[in-house]
């Protein structure tokens, strides 16, 4: 148990000192760098092989100075604490409290991991009852994490709606982008896309692409990133059944720009022309204007437009799909 001077207690594993910091591994596998000046003491469980009756845990004070990384005096690893099954077996009367504390610690560590990400949730919908009946919902979420070495972005969501018991939309997607920083503003990227659309009779479309990108801007409110590289896409349609795998050339640009202090414009376009069949071409464009609703930039009102184009859709399906949305947006950084 790591005891901080603020009174906080963090369960985990001691992985030694390095550069004036304690390397503390959390139960979920994430490693924290804790400055020595913030630590009160470290509590280790007793060694079962050496434990005596009524012996308590070993309390180890933290030195005022720690050796630099690579020093021969670097602290060795300590015995880790017992797992949950052993704790419950050894203390059956205290089992409910042990389970509660373990779940609370796990939830706390999960929150710490998620807190490193910028989170955004968008929600919109429509409900009509009377001479016309219509229910629809639009929901999406975005997670982003930007470090000195890489950038991650994960988007997921979709639309579902009915009009007088007739399905008018049922589309869901999950997209992930990984940018690994190289020299200057250049990046190497890997991108995955998965989607399904019942109205297009698309069971699923999966694509994987990789290549190079360049960041013209990469700021909290200003962003211009271009990516290009080869890829491959697999499509599975129904009525009629059709499976198609094509090599592609992937291209994408992402643009964010503040129009005023309270209005933000966002745009992303993805192009996927086939390298084996020139008639197979897909593109997706997302446009959005966000109107900030509070001083903390957490709540916004968004007007959006999505345009999907497929040059070779399934039989009797149209090439273009346009989706307009009005959503409430919550962003946490």
Please identify the structural class as seen in this structure.
Answer: mainly beta
Annotated CATH architecture of the largest domain: Beta Barrel
Q: Can you tell me the CATH class of the largest domain?
A: Mainly Beta
CATH topology grouping of the largest domain: Porin
Total count of strands? 19
**Major β-sheet annotation:** 12 strands, antiparallel, barrel
Number of helices: 2
- How many domains is the backbone divided into? 2
List keywords for this structure.
333 residues; mainly beta; Porin; 2 domains; four-stranded antiparallel β-sheet; 19 strands; 8% helix
Structure characterization notes:
The protein has 333 residues and is mainly β. The protein folds into two domains: 2-81, no CATH class; 118-332, Beta Barrel (Porin). The protein has two helices and 19 strands. It has helices at 84-90, 95-114, and strands at 2-4, 9-10, 13-18, 21-25, 31-35, 39-44, 58-61, 118-128, 134-146, 150-163, 166-181, 186-197, 202-218, 223-237, 242-258, 263-273, 281-292, 299-310, 320-332. It has a twelve-stranded antiparallel β-barrel. The protein is globular and about 75 Å long. The two termini are 29 Å apart. The model is unreliable at 69-80 (pLDDT under 50).
Itemize the secondary structure elements and their pairings.
Elements (H helix, E strand, L loop, with lengths): L1 E3 L4 E2 L2 E6 L2 E5 L5 E5 L3 E6 L13 E4 L22 H7 L4 H20 L3 E11 L5 E13 L3 E14 L2 E16 L4 E12 L4 E17 L4 E15 L4 E17 L4 E11 L7 E12 L6 E12 L9 E13 L1
Antiparallel strand pairs: 1-2, 1-6, 3-4, 4-5, 6-7, 8-9, 8-19, 9-10, 10-11, 11-12, 12-13, 13-14, 14-15, 15-16, 16-17, 17-18, 18-19
Helix pairs in contact: 1-2
């Amino acid at each position: 148990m790591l005891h901080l001077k603020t009174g906080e207690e963090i369960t985990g594993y001691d992985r030694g000192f390095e550069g004036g910091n304690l390397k503390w591994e959390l139960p979920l596998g994430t490693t924290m760098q804790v400055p020595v000046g913030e630590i009160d003491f470290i509590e280790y469980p007793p060694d079962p092989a050496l434990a005596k009756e009524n012996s308590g845990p070993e309390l180890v004070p933290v030195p005022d100075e720690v050796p630099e990384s690579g020093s021969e005096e670097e602290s060795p690893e300590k015995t880790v604490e017992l797992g949950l099954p052993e704790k419950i077996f050894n203390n059956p009367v205290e089992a409910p409290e042990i389970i509660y504390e373990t779940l609370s610690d796990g939830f706390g560590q999960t929150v710490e991991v998620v807190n490193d990400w910028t989170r955004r949730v968008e929600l919109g919908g429509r409900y009509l009852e009377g001479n016309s009946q219509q229910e629809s919902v639009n929901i999406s979420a975005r997670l982003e994490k930007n470090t000195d070495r890489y950038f991650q972005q994960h988007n997921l969501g979709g639309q579902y709606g009915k009009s007088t018991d007739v399905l008018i939309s049922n589309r869901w997607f999950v997209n992930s982008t990984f940018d690994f920083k190289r020299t200057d503003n250049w990046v190497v990227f890997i991108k995955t896309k998965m989607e399904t659309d019942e109205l297009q009779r698309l069971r699923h479309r999966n694509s994987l692409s990789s290549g190079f990108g360049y960041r013209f801007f990469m700021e909290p409110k200003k962003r211009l990133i271009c990516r290009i590289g080869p890829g491959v896409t697999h499509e599975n349609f129904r009525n009629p059944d059709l499976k198609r795998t094509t090599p592609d050339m992937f291209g994408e640009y992402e643009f964010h720009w503040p129009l005023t202090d309270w209005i933000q414009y966002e745009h992303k376009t993805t192009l996927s022309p086939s390298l084996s069949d020139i008639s197979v071409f897909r593109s997706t464009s997302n446009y959005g204007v966000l109107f900030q609703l509070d001083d903390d930039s957490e709540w916004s009102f968004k007007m959006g437009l999505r345009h999907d184009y497929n040059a070779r859709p399934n039989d009797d399906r149209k090439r273009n799909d346009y989706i307009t949305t009005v959503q409430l947006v919550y962003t946490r950084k």
